[in-house]
Each structure stands twice: as C-alpha cells, then as structure tokens.
Specification:
Two copies of one chain form a homodimer.
Chain A (H helix, E strand, L loop, with lengths): L10 H13 L14 H12 L10 E6 L2 H19 L4 H9 L10 E8 L16 H19 L2 E5 L5 H8 L5 E11 L8 H4 L12 E3 L7 H15 L9 H6 L1 H5 L7
Antiparallel strand pairs in A: 1-2, 2-4, 3-4
Helix pairs in contact in A: 1-5, 2-5, 3-6
C-alpha cells in the first residue's frame, strides 16, 4: 500500500497542487509589465512538454511571442473577431458582454501560441485510430500543465479564444498541418481574483458539481451519494483544508484587506 | 510586484505542482485492488470541475463506474478495438504493440467517463463562435486537473483511448449531444514508473523541447535561445531542484532499490 514511501506527497506539496487548481484564473485585466525571465518561461514550457500525449505523440509546438508588432497585429485580429462576437448578443447580455475584458495581448509581456501538429509521426498513431481528436486533447492537457505551473510561479495566464484563427495562422506563418489550439497571454499580475471574472461580472455561475455526477450509467443520478462526493470535494475547494482564508470571506470581509491581508484573490 | 504576499507559493507548494507534473504517469499495469474512498474521489472530481472552461461553460459530466459488469463490457469493447488497432502495425512495431498493456479497466477499482456536452447553454456561447472546439479543450483541461490531483493523492490514472466510442456511448447510455472525451481508470498503484511505459517499451522517446520552440513566428528557430529555455526547464524536470533523486539515476543505479529507496519511478 502506498502510504509511507517516496511516492507520496507531503501535506505542503499536496496543498500546492490544490492551490494551483483552485487559485488558477483566466487573467485579462491584472497583467503587470514586469518581464518574465527566460528561466521561468523555460520551466513553464517544460511543464507543458510533460503533458500526457496519446501514444507519446507530443504533438505540440510553442511559439513564444514578445515582438510588439506581432502582438499588435494579433490584438487587431481579436478586436475584429470580438466585434463580430458581440453582435450575437442582445439586451442585457449585450451590455454585459460589452463590459467584459477578454484578452491581455498587449499588457502581458509574453504571448504563447500552442499548436497541435496533426501529422506528427511520433507515437506511430497509437491510440488515434479510434479517436482522431486525442492529439488535440493531449495539447489541451499540455496547456493546463503550463497554466498550473504558471500559478505556482505567481504568473497569470489568459487564454484568448476570440480570434480569427485563419488570420492568426497567416500572421504567425503556421503551416496547414498544425492547428493553433491555444493563444495565451502570460505575465506577472497585480492579483489573482478570488472568483472567475465571468462570475464577478454576472455572466455565469459555477454549476453544482453533484448535478454532473452519474453512477455507472448516464442519467443514473444518486443525489445523496453525489452530494457526499461533491461536498467532500468542495471542502477542499473552499480552502477549509489547505488555506485559512475562505474565498467568500475574502469578498464579504473587506476588513481583511484593510488589515493588509490580501487573501487569495 | 508579487514577491512577498499571499499569492505566492512556498517552495514546498511549488515543488508539489512540479512533482505532480513530472511524476504523473499513464498507469496501466500497476493498479492495486485497494478501494478509492469517496472522500478522495470527490476531491478529484472537484479538481476537474475547477478546470478552465470557455465562457465558464463547464461542459463536463462525470460517470463514475464501479460496477463490474459494466466494466467487463467496456473491457470487451477495448479488446475488440485493440485487435483492430494491432492489425495496422507490421514487423517489429507489431511485436512491440503486442507487448504493450494499454488499459487497466478491470484492475482499477474506479473508472470514470468524462464527457463534453456540446449543447450546454452555460456561458451563452462566449468564446465559442470563433472556435467551436474550445469546449472539448476545456474538458481535456479538466481531465488534466483530475490527473494531477490524483498524483498528489498517490492515485494513478490511465487514459484509455482504444475503444469503439459508439459502442461505449451505447453501453453507458450517453446521449448524442455529449461526447465521451476521456475514459479513465483510477486507483492506487504499486509504483509510479520513473519514465513513461511507452519509452520503457521502446515505442517512442521524449522529443527535445528546444526543437519545438519558435520565436515570434513559426519556423523562426533560435537554437541558442531555445536551448537556454529548454535547459532551464529540464533542470526542473530532472529533479535537480525539487527532488534529491534523479530519474535517470533511479534507472542506472539498481542499488537504490536494493537499499529500499524506491526513488520516483
């Protein structure tokens, strides 16, 4: 039984993993101009490179974008796509949408485009015959590794999905075989908000986990058992275990801030 | 500058994040029958539920599968798909393929099917007009959260991608609007191998990260700079920083094992 050997994490190491998961945010408004050292950026890329991949295919490439002119052109690409996207909404939703900040392309000192090479020969196709999308999933998992490592390094990441991807491909010279999966803004931040920006803005709320759990078959819900599972999970996410300051306390008790306790936002 | 405030991780917390990233393995052969307590499973599901999602869509559902008959039917589904997949390889590759263990459906006490509801209304479509695949990427990121949390809890996870997914959908009663993204085996393990099983088996090797880094534009390689980035990253992955035992040492020094030091494999 793996209870007392070197495979196990210490309490602090385990807390680090859960902190990264729960305190990770999609950052758009809080970027600082402070440069990201190559040493830290290298760690993030290597974390991504150690993502799981179907057949050990490692289908990813990383374009590191610091050039201001390139970022400017990509920002224009965002602005146009965002105008089109805004037209889809009416009334209150339109008003809400207009108030959202959805990228930090120019504020963040580093941008990253992470692609998936659909024709990479590594892995010899293992695991891809039955689901050809698995290489895309692998690339998304690599992105998540990078995002969590960034949080551990106090770096914020924002994923920009409102782009004309054909135009992005042109701007970055990406060949047809490689699909841009993620366009990320990376930089130090003034703060990590306690809750997702889309929740603060009233755009959407977090679903109750218990409603998303099925047992042995789709639709086979068991309210009691699902609640137990979700409740235990939430005990972690609400930081009763790994952090003394509760996220909602940070919001309802401004005195914490006045005392200089910046809590976990 | 975020240098000495509560946003920052302690050295041990940061080490936990990198340990999870580098010591995560796709487990097939090492599962133990020891049950996974609901409390721990709940943490894993909540970790997944805190994955990033486009527009805060949270497109995932979780089917928790413990029933032996259901797992048996899914194992049969794997066996058939695997026979078909094996036919694709010839000669030495075929021999190698035949020796690979690619699932632990029956050995692992818990299986999870994580789906993506392509029609979920949460998020009101934000970020999806320009790339409709972003909901799938969100679901894959949720899987990676779960995988890393599992590693922190000393639980192994294996992602089975060799399945007839239409048959799986039938077996689990998954409606047409939901796509099975990941089928996972979850359980305690006898060990976490130091290197991926596909590397040990001679199926594939890890690519040199430096070759995957481009600067400002696809194809704009800078060998020196890329090597610096990759080298710094590797310093972390080779555990010189966060762990006293070097992965390659664990392999080349069997005496470590004889002394009862199970290292990090």
């Amino acid at each position: 039984m793996p209870t007392h050997n070197r495979h196990n994490f210490s309490a602090a190491e385990r807390r680090g993993v859960y902190r990264a998961i729960y305190e990770r945010r999609d950052i758009r408004s809080q970027f600082l101009p402070k440069p990201v050292p190559d040493g830290i950026l290298g760690r993030l890329l290597d974390a991504a490179h150690h993502g799981p991949s179907v057949g050990f295919m490692q289908p990813w490439d990383f374009i590191v974008i610091r050039d201001g002119a390139v970022r400017g052109a990509i920002r224009d690409c965002f602005l146009e796509a965002n105008r089109d996207a805004a037209r889809r909404y009416k009334g209150e939703r339109r008003r809400l949408y207009g108030g959202l900040k959805l990228e930090g392309i120019l504020e963040a000192p580093v941008n990253l485009c992470i692609t998936c090479d659909r024709q990479r020969q590594r892995g010899a196709g293992l695991g891809r015959q039955t689901d050809p999308a698995t290489d895309l999933y692998s690339t998304a998992c690599a992105v998540q590794n990078l995002w969590l490592a960034a949080r551990a390094e106090s770096l914020g990441v924002g994923w920009v999905s409102i782009l004309d991807f054909d135009r992005l491909r042109e701007l970055l010279g990406i060949p047809a075989r490689a699909l841009p999966v993620a366009y990320l803004c990376v930089g130090y931040v003034s703060e990590f908000p306690a809750v997702p920006a889309l929740e603060t803005a009233g755009w959407e709320r977090r679903e109750n986990l218990a409603r998303l759990i099925h047992f042995d078959r789709w639709g086979a819900h068991d309210d009691h058992r699902a609640s137990v599972l979700a409740h235990v999970g939430q005990a972690v996410s609400l930081r009763t275990e790994y952090h003394p300051v509760h996220a909602s306390e940070a919001r309802t008790r401004p005195s914490n801030r006045r005392r200089g306790r910046k809590a976990t936002e």
